[in-house]
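Section: Multi-chain targets

For targets with more than one molecule, the full set of components is provided together so that the structure can be written out for the assembly as a whole rather than chain by chain. Components appear in the order listed by the source. The example entry contains two components.
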Amino acid sequence: MMNKYRVTFLPDQKEVEVAEGATLFDAAEKAGVYLNTLCGGVGVCGKCRVQVTKGNAKADKQSIALLSGEEIQSGYVLACQTRVQDNLEVFIPAESRLEEEQILTGSHLEEQKRWRETCPLTYSEPQWLSVHKRPYDPASVFEPLVSKVYLELPEPNRDDNIPDTARIVRGLKKKLKYSSYEMPLDCLQHLSAKLREYTWKITATVARHNDMGRILQIEAGNTSDGNYGVAVDVGTTTVVIQLVNLKTGQVAGVEGSHNLQARYGEDVLSRIAFVCGKGSLDILQQAVLENINNLIQSLAQEKGIDIEDITFMVAAGNTTMSHLLLGLMPCSIREDPYVPTVDLYPQVSAKEVGININSSGILQVMPSVASYVGGDTVAGILACGLADRMETACLIDIGTNGEIVVGNSERMLSCSASAGPAFEGGDTKCGMRATRGAIQKVKISDGRVIYETIGKAKPRGICGSGLIDLLYELARNRVIDIDAKFRPSVKGKRLVEAAGQLQYMLAFPEETETGQALVISQSDIDNLIRSKAAMFAAVKSLVDYVGLTFAELERIYVAGGFGSYLSIEKAIGIGLLPDVPRERIEFVGNSSLMGARMALLSLHMFEKAISISQHITNVELSYYAPFADEYMAALYLPHIDHERLFPSVKY
Amino acid sequence: MMNKYRVTFLPDQKEVEVAEGATLFDAAEKAGVYLNTLCGGVGVCGKCRVQVTKGNAKADKQSIALLSGEEIQSGYVLACQTRVQDNLEVFIPAESRLEEEQILTGSHLEEQKRWRETCPLTYSEPQWLSVHKRPYDPASVFEPLVSKVYLELPEPNRDDNIPDTARIVRGLKKKLKYSSYEMPLDCLQHLSAKLREYTWKITATVARHNDMGRILQIEAGNTSDGNYGVAVDVGTTTVVIQLVNLKTGQVAGVEGSHNLQARYGEDVLSRIAFVCGKGSLDILQQAVLENINNLIQSLAQEKGIDIEDITFMVAAGNTTMSHLLLGLMPCSIREDPYVPTVDLYPQVSAKEVGININSSGILQVMPSVASYVGGDTVAGILACGLADRMETACLIDIGTNGEIVVGNSERMLSCSASAGPAFEGGDTKCGMRATRGAIQKVKISDGRVIYETIGKAKPRGICGSGLIDLLYELARNRVIDIDAKFRPSVKGKRLVEAAGQLQYMLAFPEETETGQALVISQSDIDNLIRSKAAMFAAVKSLVDYVGLTFAELERIYVAGGFGSYLSIEKAIGIGLLPDVPRERIEFVGNSSLMGARMALLSLHMFEKAISISQHITNVELSYYAPFADEYMAALYLPHIDHERLFPSVKY
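Its structure, encoded as tokens over all components, is:
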């Protein structure tokens, strides 16, 4: 018989019994404690380090390479590589736990509320949306796909004894523009009794479906004020929802959490590998459904909104996220020639998918362009209005998978670049997402480091915008060279050698929340450079492909999960963004969520999204020969062709 | 504690244990023995008489009125009125059991087959459909709503890597005319793996839905030959299905059974009363689903057709039958002002309703006109082509609920008359449905009675067409008078007095299968006369209402469950049908089933049915004052105004 051991996780004091040989990672999950991972549990990212404080457990050979001698001495191991052979007590350092732990493990609303108050995900809405008047401002074409219509119907009599459905349709035709209506079977059932019980004063929930009105539900009395929708940005790393009043168009609230799928792989490729390998589609689908349902529940509760009053959801995500949300196998997305199952996702029943809103509610996923240019990009185009204007513009969505669109109302091309998670807090030892405690601004002056954290908290790590600043400041201060290598000549208090490589001390142990120094090593910088090179090379390749120059781009929209801050100047300074007049560049934040909300509030906007998705020409960069050279040329700060491409950048 | 008793039913030797106080009717049902009932178990029809051969059980006071002294002496009781207070042995006479017992109780196909061979329901298809060329012959617009299309798709490559769904749609657009397609979620799931496993050689099942192509399923290879549909006539008394090849349009087979709902009431009013009173909707819905599913299963098995290859079903029934089939409460149909829930039934998933065909299969119920003019009438109009021609015609569907339509391609009016079940075998002691052993033709000559039974079997009863003949022959031979009363002066061997009334011996005990005489009593004749009067008065009222005369009707279509035989001459002779030149009258049999098949084979026909249902003006005879007088005038043979209205009828 197999032995069983008890594992206690600190500081939560969560205890669990597992069979001999289970990994600490699995034991933690069983205990409801979720650990960080980038690699999906194969022992190469080092994000799941934990400290064994009682009992015997040893770091394996592979893990040793990722842990310092001191750490090994203190009992640190990689949870994913360590098998339980003894009763253990294990301490989980703050940086190793998934930050939204409280929202994940506790279904207690108290806990959730506490977490939200102390550790909010930053959500920023670009200022221009509310400030500037845009031709396609959602308010100008406000017409949600799902509406609630109050009807006071005349009672049937001998001269007017048309069927109940015909009576409702006759009433609706006076208020809505649909020429025909359909009523699904479940709404028809008991309709007759309901109408009479409600004395013919009813509210009909009507959705557009194939240009018809589809009557989803009949409620007693006038409930037309209680009609809400949810816009969701299903990001690979973050899931953000907005709860929107479909009668007024006003946003009732916004809430985000980290995508629970991250446990099974950091990027889309590793998640596809999980689903199509030893894992299962259902696990990943359920993970993101848990995200969405938790967010809806807590936000609705906070705002005092009945979940039954949420009738419509629009979700924007990359093609893989969209497939996983709907329970569609993503395997062929990953295989040359990169074919998704579907681009125009059908209007589906939210209940059928597993979304907990009104049981007749509808889920619409934003249409995608190709395997690596998804509904989030289409939503972003919608949000920027790129397809509505004659001016040629470019949308750059910086993320683990970066997407670029170039074009105007006449023609649009897109491409994607696998940039890696460096700018989303992955791939660097101290990298973290743009949440509380993340360094988001950095300035280096005379050897002094000035930084600013999100929430003004003690630093816990550094997020994308902080890394851009840091890279720029290191280059400007000549701590790193044009080839992005530390200059050994400036070694000193900040630039030190450790584990065989140079690393820069961004914050000393006494400054940080964890009591450990925040450092950026040469290999961290290498990862960042590769990310920025991939992004820039993709932008450059696409612009070249179209036959344009950067100077001809009249506007550049930059989207990404950078929180509320991104220094355009410094992003150009490191060669991430092209060197164009600064006023042409606009940081639009989470344009995917914004586009989803626009589609939620306006069926015309959703139609436009379909049209956009079908008219973009996608360029597969892996088939485009010059991309490799562009990438190589961009592995410098700011670029190997500094003078021609980045004339305004001076360190 | 309540006592339990054992009841054994003979001749089946079926034993069951029931609680004290259960009725024998319920005990029989529990034992899987189904008894006849017209009244729904309230003790007034006398159809469920059984003989208690062991144990104590007494007929109650009410029952005694319906049983002869001799019967009471022999232990006869009404099963629905007799409560079990002892262990019993009960014999069920042939006439008291529902004839399709074998198909109901045995799921064994052997038994079913035996029953079908020995006791087929007669189904007749009017000759003209296959003989004459009609402008709307289904063959000329053959286009079933559901089709199967074989596609050999090119494998994706780098130059052609559109999504899987787009590839399928591209293939379909070359073969079908829909400009847009949708694929429901369950078909999308696993689509990617299927396509690759099937090496892109697939058969798509496509249904039209709101003018789009809806892709229901994807199968491996070319399965386009395996596409079948089912047309169903859901009659109040009889359910008949036709299995039709949707690729060729050919009828593969036909099968019928008695509506199992009959246990809960003979006509629609008593069934509505059951559902809306102490009974339940679910019981009646499940009953008719059992009918349909059994018929499909046995017919498909007989014809060697896979049930998975049945993708589409069209059902025609009166408004109540249609509501019950879909699980819609029928209560308001019965209450003034007679409002049904719905007239245009939505296209629904057969599986959702409980029909066992392909799990993606579709059920479409024919649209209805009003509470008492249903989809069966609309189907009948379709079958007759009444709405397609300029000539003014009349459709008379004789049944428990009779429907009449008068009109042409310009204008149509309808009405209904509650005629009672006399012509369907109810309301008369020896009446039965048009099945094996039923007398369907009668001639009386010099006191001799010559009859013909269905299947040339020994007579078991008399069906509608036999009753029409009999009534006519009794009148012609002056056994009954113009007021439809037996003439006491002709009393003799055939016309005898029993239980205080005169009755006519149609068949002596030695001639019959049951060994009991087949007789028609004065009260039977009264019931028949009331039925025929209601039908004729309805026809007359509607023709008057429109401002026409019978002479202006260029054609009269007569539909009804009369088996293969109906004497037009004798039907006119008793004043059931108007006295017009005989060649204008066409007996079209089960026009409801025929119309359902037309809609099954042609979506244009279904559209026409919708158009018909929406353009008929229904006249509620209960609000039409002259109807009562017309009814009174028609309670004579052939009519009180014999000379003016039936000049050609001479006895």
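The longest helix of chain A spans residues 522-546.
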